[in-house]
Design goal:
single chain, 455 residues, mainly alpha, 2% strand, globular
Amino acid sequence: MRSKLFTPFWLPIWFFVATIFGGTLLLHMDASRNPGVPAISWLDAMFTSTSAVCVTGLAVVDTGTYFSPLGQALLLGLIQLGALGVMTYTSLVFILLGRRVSLTDRLAVGKALLHDPSFRLGRFLAHVVLGTLGIELAGAFLLHLFDSRGFPLWSAVFHSVSAFCNAGFSLHADSLMQWRTHWGINLAFMALITLGGLGFFVLYDCTSTLKKRVRGISVQGLPARLTWHSRIVLSTSLVLVLGGALVIFVAEEAGGLRIGTWDQAMLVSLFQSVTCRTAGFNTVEIGHMTNVSLLFMIALMFIGGSPGSCAGGIKTTTARVIWGFFVSQFKGGDQVRIGRFALERGALSRAVTLVVLASVLVCASTLLLNISEGGDVPHDMARGMFLETLFEVMSAFGTVGLTTGMTPSLTAPGRIVVMVLMMVGRLGPIWLLSALAGWQVKPHYSIPEKDLPLG
C-alpha cells in the first residue's frame, strides 16, 4: 500500500497538496492581509493558495488591496513554485545536495518535461531555473520602462512573474483594462505569456538551435533545426492565437464592442486570444463580451498551452494529434501523419483517452456547479448561467483564471469543485490516470471479441 502511494507519479500530487496546505496557513496569517480588512476564511485562503500553486488566477478577494506586501510576496512564491513544478524543485534540491535521483524518478521527470528519458536532468533543471528568472527579470524591466507609474518595481516584478507563470494574478482590480490600447504593455505581457505557455523543452530547444546556427554547427551535414515536437508546438500555437484573434475581433466588432480604432480593436482581440489559452489577464470586461467570443474562448481554454509548460488544458500537441486523426480518417489513411512523421498508435490512444477524460471531467464539474450555484432556480430566471458556469469550469480546468464575474460569489461547495478542477488541470488528467494505474491489476486472460455496428 505504502509503495503504491509513493510512486514517481504520486509524489508530485503529494508535493502539490503539501504546498497548497502550507500556502493556506501562510495566507491566513494576520500579517498576510492589509490592516482594516476582515480576516480571510480558511476556505478562501485554501482557494487562493490552490489558485496560486496551480497558476490559475481565479480569486475570491482583490489581490492588490486585500493582501499586504508580505501576503503578495507569499502569493508570488506559491505561483513560482507551482509554475516550475514542485517535483522540478525537489529534483534540483536532490542534485544540489549531491543525492542520487533514482532511475524511475528520472524517467518520470523526463516524460513530463522533455519526452526524452535520456536527457541530463541536472543541466536541464539549471537551465530551466536560470532561464525562468532571466525572462521574468527582463519582463519586469520592460513593464517598468513602459509605465513606471502603473508598474513600479514591485508591481513590475509581480506582474512579470505572474505573466510568465501564466498565473493571471494582478495587483490591479481591473487587471490590465487601463492599458488595453498600450502597445508596449500588451506586447510585453503577450511575450511573457507565450514564452511561459510554450513549454520548457521548446524554449530550451529554440535557444540551443539558435546557438548552433550562430556557431555554424551542423548535424549530419545539415543546419541545426528544431525538433519535431517543437515545430508542432510552435505551428499549432500560432494557428490558435491568430485564429482566435480573428474570431474574437469579428465577433466583438459585430456585437458592438467598439474599442477605439480598428488596429486597437485588433490588439485587444489578439491579447484576449493569447491570454485565454493559459494566462487569465484581461484588457476588456469578460462578462460584456459576446457569446460567440466566450464560446470560442472556452474552446481555446480547453486546449490550453503546451506540454511541460506553465499552462493547463489538454495541450496543443493533443489538439494537433486529434486534428491529424480526423484528417487521416477523411483521407482513408491508416496512420496519423503530422509533418514528416506518422504518430505511434500508443500516442494516439493516450490523446483520445485524455480528451475523453477531460470532457467527462468538464461535463461532470459543470453539472455539479450548476447544482451548487443555482440548482433551485428556474430556467427563465437563470438565463446565461449555464454559459457562465461552463466558462468558469473551463477556466479552472485550463488553469486560465478568466471569469465572467462568478468566482467571488461561488458557494462553499462550488469553491471546492473549482479547487479540485484547478488541481487536476495543473497536474493533468493523464498524470492522475498514470498515478491510479499503479493500483490496477491487469487480467491474465482475454474474452472473445465481436464487432458492433456503430453510427
